[in-house]
Structure formats: structure tokens, C-alpha cells
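To the wet lab folks,

You asked to see what we're planning to order before we commit. Fair enough. Below is the target structure as C-alpha cells, and below that is the sequence we designed to fit it. If anything looks off to you, flag it before the synthesis order goes out.
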């Protein structure tokens, strides 16, 4: 089912499948990538309880092996409405037979989408209903149309941080697993990243040690997207490798994929939250549209 929220500036659509954003529109602009099998059918999948890939699609927990798809179980799960109004909606996912087959925990996961003026906030709420620690990561994967205006090209756009930083890049193997050999992204500091299609020939660029917001825009245009991710450690940039895909994903993640050649033990998997029984966790990010 598709749900719609709106205010005087924006109209936003969300699917019950995966609580995935389907559209972010102003009067004259669709900001969100609308999916195209030539490049990528996704639009803005949610990462939970893992971000990225598991080696061989597997992990272990307490001596038992489990299989889980890339980015976890939320994206293929049906969410149900918990609370909604004209300019907000909260969708929730509770542990069920489907989730337990891949992720053996009792949990409640809620995602809230709320509009305020030209901003859309996406908030994650996790409650541990299990007797053991709940081990998880969360993240977003929204894709935005590039260009956002007629007459501009992909290469006219930049992703810009508010201040210069010594950004570190997560080093991935050719199959997009960690090598644990991270490097400085740009010598002399990073502020503006000029976009080109071939920058993704070796797949995603994931950065950390960076400011907590980034702006996608063209100096030649007027439209922009700013993503703010206060409690997320990583920001990923991606489009389908070795294509001229007319979009870019700006992905705030709290955790990372598996290491090349290693099937993770969930108890020791890198960058995962360990939430005690009965406790709750909150995280969010905001998309500002100009």
C-alpha cells in the first residue's frame, strides 16, 4: 500500500513494503529517483538490521548459521501503520516468522516520516523485546535525481560539506566487502566532491570523519538536496557502477558490511549496536529540499 503525506511545500509517498520512500515532490520537481530496471529499481530502501553485504550472505549467532539478503530484512517486509496525520506517518515492523527465519530476535522497529516546511525527517525507533541483547545496525539508501533541472548534466553537480575535512574512505574489495585498509579520501582535505559517472566504476564511496551534513547541487542551478545525519557515522555515495545512471544515492549508515572472506559472528560484527533487553534506540536523518 502507498501512503501520502503533504504540507504546503512538499508531497511525499511511502510504501508499506519496506517503509520505502516512493516520491518526494514539490510543485514542479520530483526529487526522488523513480526506479528504472536499466539502472536500479530501488528508490530509498531502509537498512535493518544490517547495512551492506554479508560474506556469502551468511552470519552466525550462538553457534547457528543464518542467511540474510543484502541490507537486511526490513526492505522485504510489510510494515503496518502505527500513527498517521496529514504531514506525518509512523510505520512499524514487529518480529514475525519471516524475520525470525533470518534474524532470531524479538523486536519492534518503527520508522517515522514527518514534514516541516521544506524538510523531511526520517526517524528510526527500535525496541528490544528479546531476553538477549538486540544486535543491529540501521541506515538509509535514498536516491535523488541528477540532474534536478532541465539543461544540466550529471557532471554539473557536486556534493559539498559545510566545512573542509580530512575525510576517510572505507576501503572495499571488488565485491564490496571491507578490507580494513581505510585511506584518506583526498590529500589536503575534502569539501566539494565533483560528480562524474566513472567515479562509481569501482562501486560505492563510503566516507567517515566528516561533517554531519552534505549538500547535492549544481552551481549552475537552483535546486538542491541537503542531507543531515547527526548520529550516523558513515555517508555513502553510489549509483550503479559503469553506467550513466541519472541519480545518486546519499546513504547515511550506522554500520558497515562484512569483511572480505569472513562470515561474521553477529556478536563480534563491526559497528553494530548492542541494545539491552527492554531498551530503546533512536536515530534519524533529515532531507532538506530547495
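Sequence we intend to order:
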Amino acid at each position: 500500500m502507498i501512503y501520502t503525506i503533504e504540507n504546503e511545500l512538499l508531497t511525499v509517498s511511502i510504501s508499506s513494503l519496506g517503509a520505502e520512500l516512493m516520491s518526494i515532490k514539490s510543485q514542479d520537481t520530483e526529487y526522488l529517483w523513480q526506479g528504472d530496471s536499466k539502472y536500479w529499481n530501488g528508490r530509498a530502501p531502509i537498512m535493518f538490521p544490517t547495512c551492506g553485504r554479508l560474506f556469502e550472505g551468511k552470519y552466525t549467532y550462538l553457534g547457528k548459521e543464518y542467511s540474510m539478503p543484502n541490507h537486511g530484512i526490513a526492505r522485504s517486509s510489510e510494515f503496518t501503520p502505527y500513527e498517521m496525520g496529514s504531514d506525518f506517518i509512523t510505520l512499524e515492523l514487529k518480529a514475525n516468522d519471516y524475520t525470525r527465519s533470518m534474524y532470531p530476535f524479538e523486536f519492534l522497529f518503527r520508522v517515522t516520516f514527518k514534514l516541516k516546511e521544506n524538510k523531511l525527517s526520517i526517524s528510526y525507533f527500535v525496541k528490544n523485546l528479546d531476553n538477549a541483547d538486540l544486535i543491529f545496525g540501521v541506515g538509509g539508501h535514498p536516491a535523488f535525481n541528477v540532474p534536478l533541472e532541465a539543461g544540466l548534466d550529471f557532471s554539473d553537480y557536486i556534493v559539498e560539506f559545510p566545512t573542509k575535512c580530512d575525510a576517510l574512505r572505507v576501503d572495499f574489495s571488488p565485491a564490496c566487502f571491507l578490507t580494513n585498509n581505510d585511506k584518506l579520501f583526498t590529500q589536503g582535505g575534502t569539501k566539494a566532491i565533483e560528480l562524474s559517472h566513472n567515479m562509481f566504476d569501482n562501486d560505492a564511496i563510503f566516507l567517515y570523519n566528516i561533517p554531519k551534513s552534505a549538500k547535492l547541487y549544481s552551481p549552475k542551478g537552483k535546486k538542491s538536496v541537503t542531507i543531515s545525519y547527526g548520529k550516523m557515522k558513515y555517508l555513502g555515495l553510489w549509483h550503479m557502477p559503469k553506467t550513466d545512471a541519472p541519480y545518486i544515492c546519499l546513504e547515511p549508515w550506522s554500520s558497515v558490511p562484512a569483511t572480505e572472506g569472513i562470515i561474521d559472528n553477529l556478536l563480534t560484527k563491526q559497528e553494530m549496536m548492542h541494545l539491552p533487553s527492554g531498551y530503546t534506540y533512536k536515530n534519524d536523518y533529515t532531507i532538506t529540499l530547495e
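Structural context that might help your review: The longest strand covers residues 107-116. The longest helix spans residues 97-100.

Thanks,
Computational group
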